[in-house]
Write a structure and sequence with these properties.
The chain is mainly α. The protein has four helices and two strands. The longest helix is centred in the C-terminal third of the chain and has 14 residues.
Length: 87
């Protein structure tokens, strides 16, 4: 699912998904097979000096600044997008 700057939603095409995976190959690995994440990677997050909140804020910051990051510039409106169980 994608949204334009006016908030109109539409499905992501196969070609758009391929382009996303070209830009972010690690994303394809995780989304394609989430079970492939190594336990060591998960453990390193738990023992990191940063709390999970700091790590989450870093992730949101990267998304905010990325091309197409306007998705993250406004909170999701569950009524507007007809997704009452979003939260």
């Amino acid at each position: 699912m994608k949204s334009d700057s006016a908030g109109n939603c539409s499905d992501v095409s196969v070609e758009e998904l391929r382009e996303l995976y070209k830009l972010y190959p690690d994303l394809e690995k995780v989304l394609g097979n989430p079970d492939a994440i190594e336990q060591a990677q998960l453990d390193s997050l738990r023992t990191s000096k940063d709390s999970w909140q700091k790590l989450a804020l870093k992730a949101v910051s990267v998304c905010w600044k990325a091309k197409g990051g306007y998705f993250f510039h406004e909170p999701v409106d569950p009524q507007k997008f007809s997704i009452p169980d979003y939260f």
